[in-house]
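Consider the tokenized backbone below.
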């Protein structure tokens, strides 16, 4: 596995490239141009700038997360043609600096959804928390305001310019069914996968987080059956998934190691993290350690190892520990600990096989 680390960019992240470089076995950054409005083509000059910054530390920029998909594409509106063209342009420009994987998602309106970004755990650390009853009771607009009040940095997937139009967006999704979303995703994929293929870039869709409908909006990248259907939409190795153990794993019916075993050759990028699920449907993000959460991370890593996984991996989110001031879920310390746990399992698997590969 090839270890990478998400970095939000110069002046937009509390973690530095110098620090990332010092995490054992970490070879590259997972990045994006977070200030380019969704739907616009990314400027080549800005892309090159990130490449130069990473080069200085010997880190690569092979993985981009995310090139976000405009809502008009998800809704199947006429303007999608223009946004799809812009998306293709971004793919071509990213290929010019050697990008190999683009992670994206197809969740209507919201990306990940949580009710508390600083839930205190028993050991005094804090983490992202999802309280089912609260989501069912709260008005989504109120939730967005609450989240925005608690964050000084813009959060990926919660771009202010998009969320400002929240009411109109909700209105646009009235009557949009899961089948409509499937159709619009298929249309998008038919258009972009040939371009990705021609440019040597693997598209890797991120599952829905959490993997069920929130606020009455349709969600489709939620379970094994749907991922099968999704991969069958276009039969190409350039159409794959970002298998996120924490997102899919919030539903106990999703057996992550089995999913890894089934889909391994279509997973160019893996997100590995743990969550602890409660009986009432709430869940909280935990350390990576198998015993701390509901997902057997040891078995997840073993499943990748068994399949000679050579794709990119990142620790997804981390807790906030040791009083680190950081973006919710994206501190240095707990994610670095997560990396060491993943390497520990991986290296032990290697030893078992009598090998020393990385
Ligand atoms: C990520 C997602 O920070 C996170 O929760 O896992 O925002 C992810 O980057 C997007 O869904 C990918 O498009
Ligand atoms: Mn993820």
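A designed sequence for it:
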């Amino acid at each position: 596995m090839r270890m990478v680390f998400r970095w939000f960019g110069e002046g937009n992240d509390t973690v530095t490239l110098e620090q990332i470089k010092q995490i054992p076995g970490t070879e590259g950054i997972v990045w994006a141009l977070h200030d380019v409005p969704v739907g616009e083509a990314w400027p080549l000059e800005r892309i090159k700038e990130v490449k130069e910054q990473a080069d200085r530390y010997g880190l690569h920029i092979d993985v981009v997360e995310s090139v976000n998909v405009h809502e008009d594409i998800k809704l199947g509106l006429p303007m999608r043609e223009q946004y799809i063209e812009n998306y293709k342009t971004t793919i071509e420009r990213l290929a010019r600096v050697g990008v190999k994987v683009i992670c994206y998602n197809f969740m209507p309106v919201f990306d990940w959804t949580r009710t508390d970004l600083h839930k205190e755990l028993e050991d005094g650390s804090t983490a992202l928390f999802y309280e089912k009853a609260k989501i069912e009771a709260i008005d989504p607009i109120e939730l967005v305001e609450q989240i925005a009040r608690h964050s000084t940095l813009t959060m990926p997937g919660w771009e202010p310019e998009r969320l400002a139009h929240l009411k109109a967006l909700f209105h646009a999704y009235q009557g949009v069914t899961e089948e409509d979303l499937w159709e619009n995703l298929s249309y998008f994929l038919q258009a972009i996968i040939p371009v990705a293929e021609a440019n040597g870039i693997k598209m890797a869709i991120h599952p829905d987080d959490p993997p069920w409908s929130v606020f009455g909006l349709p969600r489709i990248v939620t379970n094994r059956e749907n991922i099968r259907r999704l991969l069958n939409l276009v039969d190409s190795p350039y159409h794959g998934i970002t298998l996120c153990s924490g997102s899919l794993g919030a539903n106990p019916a999703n057996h992550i190691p089995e999913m890894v075993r089934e889909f391994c050759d279509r997973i160019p990028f893996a997100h590995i993290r743990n969550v602890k699920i409660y009986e009432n449907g709430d869940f909280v993000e935990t350390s990576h350690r198998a015993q701390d959460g509901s997902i057997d991370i040891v078995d997840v890593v073993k499943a990748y190892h068994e399949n000679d996984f050579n794709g990119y991996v990142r620790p997804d989110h981390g807790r906030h520990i040791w009083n680190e001031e950081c973006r919710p879920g994206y501190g240095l310390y707990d994610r670095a600990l997560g990396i060491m746990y993943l390497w520990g399992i991986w290296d032990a698997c290697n030893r078992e096989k009598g090998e020393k590969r990385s």
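Residues 206, 244, 246-247, 271, 316 surround manganese (II) ion (ligand 2) (CB under 6 Å).
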